[in-house]
Amino acid sequence: MVRKILKEVYGIKDEIIDLGSETEQLVKDKFNEIDKIKEYNQLKVLSSMQKAHLAERHLHGTTGYGYNDAGRDIIEEIYSDVFKTEDAIVRSQIVSGTHAIAVCLFGILRPGDILLSAAGKPYDTMDSVIGLKESYGSLKEYGVSYQQVDLLTNDEPDYEKIYETVNEKTKLVLIQRSRGYSYRKALSIESIGKIIETVKSRNKNAICMVDNCYGEFVCTKEPTEVGADIMAGSLIKNPGGGLALNGGGYIAGKEELVKMCANRLTSPGLGKHVGATYGSLRNIIQGFFLAPHVVSECLKGAVFMSALFDRLGYETSPSWDHERSDIVQAIKFHDPDKLIAFCKAIQSAAPVDSFVSPEPSDMPGYSHKVIMAAGAFVQGASIELSADGPLKEPYTAYMQGGLMYENVKIAALIAASDID
Ligand SMILES: *Cc1c(COP(=O)(O)O)cnc(C)c1O
Q1: In principle, which of 124, 125, 281, 379 could form an S-S bond with 98, CB 3.0–4.6 Å?
Q2: Ligand 1: distance of its center to the CA of 327 in Å?
Q3: How far apart are CA 212 and CA 176, in angstroms?
Q4: What is the mean pLDDT of the chain?
Q5: Where do the DSSP E strands lie in 361-400?
């Protein structure tokens, strides 16, 4: 029955359908592993909701200043229970992941402090925040200086160099867990723990902060369980579960640090006490409930995609059988036409805007054209199936998301059919 649709509706060749079935057999054990992690994380979230006495009345929210917003308070309590932290902020007033990370950096750092990135150059959007790219209001403008320790050629942290670089003036160490859009491995929870141990052995007061974007619920532990003082992420990625409707963001960590961030987000004196949630709470709370499941669907899709393209002879990262710490899947095409065909295939498999054909175009801040595929219910949501790639050697596509495994699978089959 499925074969009939694959052939008649999607025009997929018989040999690709067969290869797809074989690939599914091949990755069975990996899917079982993902299911175990999902079940564990699902119970973690469910039991936290029960422990906090989440009730129907919490789903409605407040207007105006948003004083005494019980739903907002309880979702922050639930996040901090799940992530094993003292406190958390979960807000739709945070507009994106970049904003959540910027709130942390500006909330904690003061003039004269040193910010150290311990896992190479951070995500592109951080350039303007740090001041690597001239920008009004950057950390650099406020007198915060920046240092960076690159990853080693095997993508592991350079612990020796980190140890040498940290000193008593190092105020905050930024650790980016996910690869983002660079061809490197995501840092494992163990590696993050080891970086933190290294930093603290040199300066026990240095604050370790993790950019946890794309990482939530991929493993059974989060960075805050291996010593991170604070972490931040985006709600249109993993923890929003596909339901959070605006950029949204969370910050979770030590109470005092979260307080500093809250004062930056709203105002000194107001902190966490304000911020109306009118209409956004139900999706944020239900999305967090669904997140472990949705992340497992993304991971299965990524594993299938990786295994299928590996069998077609392409280099993929991570390879299908490797340990994962984020939801991103990279495939190297070494051919602009194949990269473009891949992104067009992803777009055509989307539930929304499937009839649109993405074209490479110039992007502000990029020196080369970029092609992007996304047909999402929530604009820019990368927990939904999406892919993009810069039009330059080695013509790598970065794919992530997929609310449902079956959707990623059909996208992979269409792409394999079109490219081969
Ligand atoms: C997505 C992402 C960000 C920025 O999040 P936005 O919501 O796009 O602003 C930062 N760091 C990493 C690793 C990311 O994946």
Answers
A1: 125
A2: 12
A3: 7
A4: 96
A5: 370-374, 386-390, 396-400
